């Protein structure tokens, strides 16, 4: 499985249920990676999308403890076990975990690839992604040229879980 995330120098990913910054090229990268694939997300992340609607052109699976939650255009699962069982119907490389922080924390152990847009900046934040640079199980296997959005330098990094 894949994880896709945009994080700052402190691995911060959000503040008050919003992304830290919206970079058009990062959004384009996200669309290109996930289009036609399966995206797994939490309810709060879904609520940040335009009109709180599932992403078009993708199979949306929402992980939520709320048993009464029904979302048009998305499938809702209520536990990690139920989610993992459902994901068996898809190829691992077609599954993208897209947030938020609790969903990332729960599913990182099941992922082998992390697509990280790394912002060379430090934001005020209240949600974080695990620091893959400090985890000896992960290594950077690809990186892009540094790009800039206004005054924010960023790179696209690909981390892969080391084979044991």
Describe this structure in words.
The chain is an alpha/beta fold and 164 residues long. The chain has one domain: 3-Layer(aba) Sandwich (Dihydrofolate Reductase, subunit A), CATH 3.40.430.10. The chain has four helices and twelve strands; from the N terminus they run E-E-E-H-E-H-E-E-H-E-H-E-E-E-E-E. Strands 1, 4, 5, 6, 7, 8, 10, 11 and 12 form a nine-stranded mixed beta sheet that branches. It has a three-stranded antiparallel beta sheet with strand order 3-2-9, with no helix packed on it. The chain is globular. The chain starts with a strand and ends with a strand. The relative contact order is 0.26.
Quick structural overview:
The protein is of the alpha/beta class.
Question: Span between N and C termini?
Answer: 17 Å
What is the succession of H and E elements?
EEEHEHEEHEHEEEEE
Structural class: alpha/beta
- Reported CATH architecture: 3-Layer(aba) Sandwich
User: What is the residue-averaged pLDDT?
Assistant: 97
Please state roughly what percent of the residues sit in beta strands, choosing from under 5%, 5-15%, 15-25%, 25-35%, 35-45% or over 45%: 35-45%
Write down how many β-strands occur, each being a DSSP E stretch of 2 or more residues: 12
Which runs of at least 5 residues are low in confidence (pLDDT < 50)? none
Q: What is the name of the CATH topology? A: Dihydrofolate Reductase, subunit A
Mind summarizing the main beta sheet?
9 strands, mixed
Number of domains: 1
**How many individual helices?**
4
The coarse silhouette is globular
Radius of gyration: 15 Å
Helix % is 10-25%
The CATH homology group name:
Dihydrofolate Reductase, subunit A
